[in-house]
Amino acid sequence: MRHKFPYNWTLKDANFTKDKGSVFSTFACGGGSTMGYKLAGFDVIGMNEIDPKMAEAYIANHKPKYSYIEDIRDFKKRSDLPGELYNLDILDGSPPCSSFSMAGSREKGWGKEKKFREGQVAQTLDDLFFDFIDLAKELQPKIVIAENVKGLLLGNAKQYVAKIGQSFNDAGYTVEKYLLNASKMGVPQRRERVFFIAVRNDLTNLLPRGLDLFSTFPELDLYFTEPGILFGEYRSETGNFDKLTDRQKRLLRLRLPNEKSFGEVSLRVDNKLSGFTDMIVNDNDISGTITANGKNFRAIDDTWFSDADYSLTGSFPLDYNHLANKPQYLIGMSVPPVMVAQIVTRIYDQWPKLFEEN
Q1: Cα–chain-centroid distance for residue 3?
Q2: For the chain, what is the mean pLDDT?
Q3: What does the H/E/C string look like for the chain?
Q4: Which of 153, 166, 236, 323 could form a disulfide with 308 if both were Cys (CB 3.0 to 4.6 A apart)?
Q5: pTM
Q6: By C-alpha distance, which of 315, 236, 228, 340 is closest to 8?
Q7: How far apart are CA 291 and CA 97, in angstroms?
Q8: What does the pLDDT average to over 51-71?
Q9: Considering the domain boundaries, does residue 7 fall inside one?
């Protein structure tokens, strides 16, 4: 078997056993991580999401027992949460990360409020991770899993990583970070993400010791080597025929074979940093990262990715109901389901005592 989990799948045919443990998802978006937990056999009992359009799609597809469509800063202060949320196996979250992304403004955007789109409340994005940890401190789940961009590990952003670690410690958790590449995990895209995995301190004695005697974090193997999936293996018959701009047409004419985005061509030809999230994908390429605002271009027929191309590249189910959301935007904002399924399966298999009643 080439891959542990299928990237080409549907909700109607999926077998969600819900027998591994309970999960609550924050910053749930359209439920990318939720579907990963479900594929791995976990029961996702609820969600918190600030964007009403995203939340509507989440509820339509997942029908959660509990749903809270509000700012996490309000959600963490609630005094009326059900008892099940205080007995979780896993608290999941993907705090918005654009202020740390290498494709964004980085330091220029730190400490500033931002709305992703109309209808959302303005938020200081680089504070939201700590609101998430405040929620973990309140709910005290066994495990906390948080996803963020690779840029969090680079440059001045490293100071935030140190603060994140200290905040987890203050909340009663031992934490470790892992930089993972989705293309090695059975997801058809080159998507590098940082995952913070935290274990409640009173449970670490149930887990195997790390190989490093000086490490306080339990042993956990998250090394993945599944073969990459080339775009030509799964692309749809036809793409999206949205028009190219005159500038994009010119850049395509001047493109070199090794250049994988309009931005790479622009930097070489015009000395201009523009278009790095607009990827150019050949059939013999592993697709670049799907982003909320950039687009992916099919070199084989000079069209943009179809909705099916985005779904398969993101390991999203082909029958997912996006409602009023553009598939590319929702998938770009979400964690690939197969990526999460791989991680949480490794955790369950290597830390079985955590999922026993205690």
Answers
A1: 19
A2: 92
A3: CCCCCCCCCCCCCCCCCCCCCEEEEECCCCCHHHHHHHHCCCEEEEEECCCHHHHHHHHHHHCCCEEECCCHHHHCCCCCCCHHHHCCCEEEECCCCHHHCCCCCHHHHCCCEECCCCCCCCEEHHHHHHHHHHHHHHHCCCEEEEEEEHHHHCHHHHHHHHHHHHHHHHCCEEEEEEEEEHHHCCCCEECEEEEEEEEEHHHHHHCCCCCCCCCCCCCCCCCCCCCCCCHHHCCCCCCECCCCCHHHHHHHHHCCCCCCEHHHHHHHHHCCCCCCCCEEECCCCCEECCCCCCCEEECCCCEECCHHHHHHHCCCCCCCCCCCCCHHHHHHHCCCHHHHHHHHHHHHHHCHHHHCCC
A4: 236
A5: 0.92
A6: 315
A7: 12
A8: 97
A9: no
Tell me, yes or no, whether 33 and 90 share the same domain: yes
CATH of the domain at 161: 3.40.50.150
Q: Is residue 6 predicted with pLDDT exceeding 90? A: yes
pLDDT attached to residue 166: 97
Query: What is the set of active-site residues?
Result: 97
Confidence of residue 126 (pLDDT cuts 50, 70, 90): confident
- For the stretch 158-165, contacts whose Cβ atoms lie closer than 8 Å and that sit 24 or more positions apart, written own/partner, are 160/100, 160/126, 160/129, 163/130, 164/129, 164/130, 164/133, 164/196
Together in a domain, 160 and 89: yes
Q: Are 253 and 207 contained in the same domain?
A: no
- In the chain, the number of structural domains is 2
Q: Which residues span the domain enclosing 350?
A: 22-227+332-355
Q: Which two tokens stand for residue 130?
A: 């700590």
Angle between helical axes of 52-62 and 32-39 (0-180°, round to 10): 20
Residue 3, domain member (yes or no): no
pLDDT band at 108 (very low <50, low <70, confident <90, very high): low
Spell out the residues 6+ positions from residue 152 whose beta carbon is closer than 8 angstroms to its own: 97, 100, 160, 161, 194
